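Risk register update: the risk of archive-format incompatibility is retired. Evidence:
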Amino acid sequence: DISPLLKDPVAFRTLIDLLEDHLRASFPKIDFIAGLDSRGFLIGPPLAQRLGIGFVPVRKRGKLPGPTESISYSLEYGKAELEIQSDAVEPGQKVVIVDDLLATGGTMCAACELLKRLKAEILECLVVIELKSLKGSERLGSIPFYSLLQYD
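Archived output:
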């Protein structure tokens, strides 16, 4: 739960500082931050703004205007669908995918698939919290993954 971070402006600024430092040290060029619905929308835009790049939302089905790419995927409690605008990124653009939490990895894997369909280069999947015992990062395969905090 990142709610305490959101309530505390110093803690939230520190979180964005840490994520910014990590990305600047890891990647010389990033074109976009892609944030996952919905808490990735809270972390992604301030991070993108700090880096001087754009933000791309990956949303639940039916929320984005215009033509979209969509994917259906399984969750531990059912099925869900994600969408991205078809023109959100150009082929070869470098993208970091951001969310607050990685549990089983279903949503993150679905977002990776959508960005691959648009022929983006996924530099990394970045989260604040990783629940290691659920092994979600293993589902990402060869896509680089970074979590600020890990819990078993």
